[in-house]
Amino acid sequence: MERPSLEINPPDTQEEGKLYVVDSLNNLNKLNVCPDGSQHVLDEEENIGATEENTSGGNIRNQSLFFVTFILTLIISLALVSFVIFIIIQTRNKMDQISSRLIAEKKNIEALKKITNMILKHLNRSGIKE
């Protein structure tokens, strides 16, 4: 049985070392810039700033979505109201046509009644009875 060889990869170690050095320099820089105790406040401000940026972006997106929805609702409402007004006008025109036809038919019926009465009077005078 062979034992697995433990080889150290120098390039990986160097990269890890570089990252460690960069992190250490960043931490040292923070300590030099900020006195003791204020580092915690600085971290909180960075977190709050990032949260506010995310929240403000979300608020802008929500406001624009609300605005677009509101505009679409207004357009649809306007279209529906226009359609209802159009239907009311069409119905009124049809009702006017039907009313004028009924009046004309009423006149025709009255004329037919007069003619029927005249015919009946004439038949009664002439002596022909049914």
Description:
Helix content is 87%, strand content 0%. It has 130 residues and is mainly α. It is built from two helices and no strands. The model has no long low-confidence stretch (mean pLDDT 78). It is rod-shaped and about 135 Å long.
Helix content: over 70%
Q: What is the beta-strand fraction?
A: under 5%
Order of helices and strands: HH
Strand count, sense and barrel status of the largest sheet are:
none
Report the end-to-end length measured between terminal Cα atoms.
135 Å
Outline: rod-shaped
Mean pLDDT over the full residue set: 78
Q: How is the quaternary structure best described?
A: single chain
Low-pLDDT stretches: none
Radius of gyration computed on alpha carbons = 48 Å
Keywords: Membrane, Transmembrane, Transmembrane helix
Transmembrane segments: 65-89
InterPro entries: DUF4577 (IPR028099)
Protein name: LSME1 protein
Outline the fold blueprint:
Blueprint lengths: L9 H24 L4 H89 L4
Short précis:
With 130 residues, the chain is mainly alpha-helical.
Entry keywords:
single chain, 87% helix, 130 residues, 2 helices, mainly alpha
